[in-house]
Request: fold
Amino acid sequence: MDFTVGTIVDGKVKSITKFGAFISLPGNRTGMVHISEIAHAYVSDIHDHLTEGQDVKVMVIAVDPAGKINLSIKRTLEPPRQQSGHGPSSGRPASDRPRGRASDRPRAESFRPSQPREPQSFDDMLKQFMQDSDSKISSLKQYSDHRSRSRRR
Reply:
């Protein structure tokens, strides 16, 4: 089978890595879907979207001279709809759009096709980030304090 850019083919997920998934294609060929080409929303864990052995529809987005085939799943899916009046195509400049609180705006997770995990609000994610950051900073301070005290003068 000839794999040209733009061709949509059916494949089967062969293996999953942290950076993408390898897809078995017709004619004993294999292609790869990069993590950024799996869904329209941010994908932090591929296992939330794909499983090994799953049948998928993919689009060929590139074929390099060495024969490697780059694929996309999200280009075969319908893009998420923007809410009227708030999206970039609303016709109004960004400065004229109503802002509102962050809790009033839709979250990116709400557009994810499958949500096995409960979505977190921005405040929850920020709180988690701050806790992780504080933990890392305190361990770095302990390490640097230990090193500065152990040096001979």
Q: What stands out?
A: Confidence is low (pLDDT under 50) at residues 107-115. The first helix runs from residue 122 to 150.
